[in-house]
Amino acid sequence: xxxxxxxxxxxxxxxxxxxxxxxxxxxxxxxxxxxxxxxxxxxxxxxxxxxxxxxxxxxxxxxxxxxxxxxxxxxxxxxxxxxxxxxxxxxxxxxxxxxxxxxxxxxxxxxxxxxxxxxxxxxxxxxxxxxxxxxxxxxxxxxxxxxxxxxxxxxxxxxxxxxxxxxxxxxxxxxxxxxxxxxxxxxxxxxxxxxxxxxxxxxxxxxxxxxxxxxxxxxxxxxxxxxxxxxxxxxxxxxxxxxxxxxxxxxxxxxxxxxxxxxxxxxxxxxxxxxxxxxxxxxxxxxxxxxxxxxxxxxxxxxxxxxxxxxxxxxxxxxxxxxxxxxxx
Length: 329
Fold this sequence. Notes:
By secondary structure, the protein is α/β, with parallel strands linked by helices. It has helices at about 10-15, 40-55, 70-80, 95-100, 130-145, 160-175, 195-205, 215-230, 255-270, 285, 305-320, and strands at about 5, 30, 60-65, 85-90, 110, 125, 150-155, 185, 210-215, 235-240, 250-255, 275-280, 285-290. Pfam families: Bmp (PF02608).
């Protein structure tokens, strides 16, 4: 089934087919993004998931680079076109889907972000992407691979409560794994500024950090390069980023957004859409540690450190490790 860009006229096309019946029509999925499908990360990965459900037989449509001012019109447009599932890729779609969901009770709306405090309509769902468990895990790995006497540092992006909680959980994971380690973080306020990322990394390295992890898109790329330039280790995020800083990257926390898109489509088709609440995949369903086809860089991560980290990762995934906040909020 072909992938159709932007707003599609799939409904009209199907209706024009002789003998078309609603009960037998393909399932229809729309994906709306505020960035480009060529960004190499967040939006491209969601688009890859959409391509996969298209190949599985769904009729799909997408819109990229949608300005905030156009989110409402675009979202209603796909709903009016009769899409069964509309996916808003990011927190920017929260208020819009909360508002329009009740107007289209027979369709489903999924936001790839944390749920708001408000009541969620029964046909709207959000996702817990396990950012905090992931951050704890990254802190644990950073602590395990830090040279003796060195600390660990986190570089964030936009300065918001979610990014700060990720920083705190990173620090918690490091200190729980290596008691007394110097764990620190900087959230510079921008996801897309490599210079700020390099500056943040350099500042923490100057204060003793021997390992840097980021969760900051383009800003994070600067952090990785800054770590390599300073001769310290680093952990990438979202994709396998070993090529960004080959001498520094020990592993990357890789998100499986294509699986998330496929799975929410499957749940919706099976009438198991988690409407009115929060979908919570396991850590190991949505995330993985990757380095050049393996898990970790053996030149930077000892076998003993890798084994201990694997135990921590397994515990966070199956719930036997359920870290309570020790730092910050």
